[in-house]
Design brief:
Layout: H1 2-13, E1 20-21, H2 29-36, E2 43-51, E3 54-61, H3 68-75, E4 79-81, H4 84-91, E5 108-112, E6 122-123, E7 130-131, H5 136-142, E8 146-148
Parallel strand pairs: 2-6, 3-5, 5-8
Antiparallel strand pairs: 1-7, 2-3, 2-4
C-alpha cells in the first residue's frame, strides 16, 4: 500500500521520477548506501518527531543526527521521536521506508541543510526496498518543505 501511494504521488507531481525497487533491503542508512552504491550521507532519512502537540517530518543526510539544542531552538520545543506505530499512522510507511511522499494526511515537512552537501540524495519510497533519486532542492520543492539547520556539526 505505501509504495503505491508514493508511486501515485510521483505520477501526479513528478512523472519523470520513478521509484527504484531493489531486492536488497534499504531499511537502514548503511544497508541503503551499500545497496545503492552511494555514500551514507546521500541517504535522505526521514525522522518522524513530535514537537509540542505537532507531529512533523525532518529529512536529513543519512549520517546526520538531530542536535537537541538546535532542534529545540528551531521548533521552540523539545523534540521526541515518534514510536513505530505512530509513524505508520502518520505516514502510512513502515519504519525503514518512511519518506515525505504519498502521505495520507497533511504533515509539515522540514529538510535539514545537511542534505545540501550532496548533488543528489536517495530518500526511501514507502517501504524497506525502494528509493528515489533526486536533488535536495527538488525533494524540498515536491513536499513543500521548509529548510532548517537542526543537525549536529
Amino acid at each position: 500500500m505505501s509504495r503505491e501511494s508514493v508511486q501515485a504521488f510521483f505520477e501526479v507531481n513528478a512523472p519523470d521520477i520513478k521509484p527504484v525497487v531493489l531486492t536488497d533491503s534499504t531499511a537502514t542508512v548503511a544497508e541503503a548506501a551499500r545497496t545503492l552504491g552511494v555514500q551514507e550521507g546521500q541517504i535522505a532519512k526521514t525522522l518522524a518527531l513530535k514537537v509540542g502537540d505537532e507531529r512533523i517530518l525532518v529529512v536529513m543526510a543519512g549520517m546526520g543526527r538531530p542536535d537537541n539544542r538546535k532542534t529545540k531552538d528551531t521548533f521552540r520545543n523539545r523534540p521526541r521521536m515518534l514510536p513505530a506505530e505512530e509513524v505508520l499512522e502518520l505516514t502510512s510507511h513502515p519504519v525503514g521506508g518512511v519518506c515525505p511522499f504519498g502521505l495520507p494526511q497533511p504533515v509539515r515537512v522540514f529538510c535539514d541543510t545537511s542534505l545540501r552537501a550532496f548533488d543528489v540524495v536517495w530518500p526511501a519510497a514507502g517501504d524497506r526496498n525502494s528509493s528515489v533519486c533526486l536533488t535536495p532542492d527538488r525533494l524540498a520543492d515536491l513536499v513543500e518543505a521548509e529548510w532548517v539547520d537542526v543537525s549536529q556539526e
